[in-house]
Design brief:
- Helix content is 27%, strand content 25%.
- It has helices spanning 45-62, 78-81, 108-113, 124-141, 147-159, 185-195, 211-225, 250-266; strands at residues 2-7, 18-24, 32-37, 69-73, 84-85, 88-89, 164-171, 173-174, 177-180, 199-202, 236-244, 285-286, 290-294, 299-303, 310-311, 316-321, 328-332, 337-342, 347-348, 353-358.
- The strands form 4 sheets. The chain has a 9-stranded mixed beta sheet with strand order 1-2-4-3-7-11-9-10-12, with helices on both faces. Strands 8, 13, 15, 18 and 20 form a 5-stranded antiparallel beta sheet that branches.
- Bound molecules: zinc ion (ZN).
- Zinc ion is lined by residues 40, 43, 102, 169.
- GO terms for molecular function: hydrolase activity, acting on ester bonds; metal ion binding.
- Residues 31-263 form the Succinylglutamate desuccinylase/Aspartoacylase catalytic domain.
- This is Succinylglutamate desuccinylase/aspartoacylase family protein.
């Protein structure tokens, strides 16, 4: 194992942070896998999974069984992890700019596209190498101005040379689910099987430019732009939502780490036997088919549908109780699907998201991710 540190832009005198990466396996292995956790810094289930993975990967490395170069970034957002306001951790948004830490990553297609003009030929593998080189060079030339920009750039620089990228998050309350690009789904279907993911949401362009989307969409745009030349589909990235904020146990972390290692073995990253993946629990659905139920008014939130429940149109999801006026507002599902996220705090302000339902029929347009 090798530990590397990337210094972030110092935001103020006497203050500096590093992004720590743990590298396992042969440095020049033909394949590279990046696993990072907690870009939303308060989402800690993935940190525990990364800790288990570090231990297991160190054992595999000692036994000479690693065939891929594997990078683990357990704390992908040391900036957000230190944002405390009156005792509460504010890990989702940068308190300086208000920006969501997992939005507005750089557009690698715009950055790298022009330098590929006239470079590509008929050889797909060579084209892949040239595209990767152009992206790595373009990212290498960027000069970040702020700590947030340097953090996002450091994460992209680590992931750009990879073949497979796992970005570990969680919901407030949630079932195990994942988001990825339709083009990346075939690669990640076995991961969904090993993990036991019941809700896989596919989207090519959510409008949010999250970390996984920056990689998937960036390569897709380069593939489209240079359509006369064969370009391999890599890196492929997935955002895995490891249930809810409070689902942090040793048993779950061991189970999820096991699943990730089985997936890596299936892809040839670990020598030895491969465990056949179990059946897929549910076919993926389009992100445009998911309903977000928002609170029309403030009040005490009382859920009437369980997390993971299959619901139908008209079915009650939650009541919002106003103990001053005695009004009870019942929120119902508009679509058929699986209730896959809920809030933690049982008080809502008007306009706040109450729940999400994953349905199979596309109907949404516009930005698909929360701000
Ligand atoms: Zn997140």
């Amino acid at each position: 194992m090798e530990i590397r540190r990337t210094p972030l832009v110092s935001p103020s005198l006497g203050t500096a942070r590093d992004l720590l990466q743990y590298h396992f396996g042969p440095a020049h292995a033909p394949r590279r896998i990046v696993i990072q956790s907690s870009v939303h810094a308060d989402e800690t289930p993935g940190m525990l999974v990364a800790w288990v993975l570090k231990r297991r990967l160190a054992e595999l490395e000692r036994d000479g069984l690693l065939r891929s170069h594997i990078v683990v970034v357990p704390v992908a957002n040391p900036v957000g992890l230190n944002q405390r306001v009156s005792g509460s951790l504010i890990g989702r948004f940068d308190t300086d700019s208000g920006q969501n830490f997992n939005r507005q990553f750089l557009d690698i297609a715009s950055l790298a596209g022009d330098r590929l003009e006239g470079q590509l030929g008929r050889d797909e593998a060579r084209n892949g190498m040239l595209v990767r080189k152009a992206i790595v060079e373009a990212l290498g030339e960027r000069a970040p101005r702020t700590e947030l920009e340097s953090l996002q750039l450091a994460l992209l620089r680590l992931a750009a040379p990879a073949d497979i990228v796992l970005d570990l998050h969680c919901s407030l309350e949630g079932v195990l689910h994942l988001y990825t690009h339709a083009r990346a789904w075939p690669a990640f279907e076995p991961l969904a099987r090993y993990l036991g993911v019941g809700t896989s949401l596919l989207c090519d362009d959510s409008g949010g430019h999250s970390f996984d989307e920056a990689l998937n969409l960036g390569w897709s745009r380069l593939i489209e732009r240079f359509g006369d030349h064969p370009i391999p589909a890599a890196p492929l990235a997935v955002c895995v939502e490891l249930r809810g904020l409070h689902d942090v146990t040793h048993a779950l972390a061991e189970r999820d780490a096991d699943a990730i290692l089985q997936f890596i073995a299936l892809r040839g990253g670990i020598a030895g036997g491969v465990t056949p993946p179990p059946d897929l629990i549910r076919e993926p659905v389009p992100l445009t088919g998911s309903e977000q139920i928002d609170a029309p008014c403030a009040g005490v939130l009382v859920y009437r549908a369980a997390l993971g429940a299959s619901v139908k149109p008209g079915e009650p999801i939650a009541d919002i109780v106003d103990p001053l006026s005695d009004a009870v507002t019942t929120l119902v599902a508009s679509i058929e699907g699986v209730l896959f996220t809920r809030r933690v705090v049982r008080y809502v302000h008007a306009g706040a998201m109450v729940a999400q339902i994953a349905g199979a029929t596309p109907f949404r347009t516009g930005p698909l991710l929360s701000p």
